[in-house]
Amino acid sequence: MSSKITEPEISLLVDTFYSKVRLDPDIGPIFNAIVGDWPHHLATLKDFWSTVLLTTGRYKGDPMMTHLQLPLDPDHFSRWLALFAETAHEVLRPAHAATVIAKSQRIAENFKAGIALQRSTVS
Ligand code: HEM
Q1: Which structural domain range is residue 74 located in?
Q2: Is residue 35 in contact with ligand 1, taking CB distance under 6 Å?
Q3: Would you say residue 83 lies in a domain?
Q4: 100 lines ligand 1 (CB under 6 A)
């Protein structure tokens, strides 16, 4: 990445993405049923992406464990990734959009693999 993505760009990406997610007919209901404190959720996701993209270390959570507790299937991930890519292209310059989209796809694949493993061990 020639010039580094900035914290204000990460903030805009997260705010814009989750404003779409909350209205989305497919994945919106999952978020709206669980997230009670949206300002806190948005702050957590800004810490998460700041840690992933700028190695600031601000995020200390365990996202895999969080997503193993959720009623997710591969279609939900396809919708999440499509909305995220759409938002990245809208608010970021192309080089930054490509970087965050690639990271989101890799992380989503990890979550899907973790969920599949969890379900294969319980059935
Ligand atoms: C199927 C798609 C997804 C759905 C429906 C989903 C839904 C959620 C929900 C409802 C929460 C809040 C959980 C809680 O507060 O208990 C959450 C947290 C989170 N999600 Fe996702 N998620 C999805 C995919 C992803 C992906 C692909 C990423 C990263 C690239 C991601 C990153 C996070 C992070 C960092 C948190 C915060 C976990 C914490 O509290 O530390 N999610 N997600």
Answers
A1: 7-122
A2: yes
A3: yes
A4: no
Q: How many domains does the chain have?
A: 1
Q: Which amino acid is at 111?
A: F
pLDDT tens per residue across span 81-103: 999 999 999 999 999 999 999 99
Query: Ligand 1: which atom is nearest the Cα of residue 104?
Result: 30
Asked if residue 2 belongs to a domain, the reply is no
- Spatial neighbors of 14 by CB under 8 A, at least 6 apart, are 42, 45, 46, 49
Establish if 1 belongs to a structural domain.
no
Residue ranges, the chain, pLDDT below 50: 1
100/39 Cα distance (integer angstroms): 22
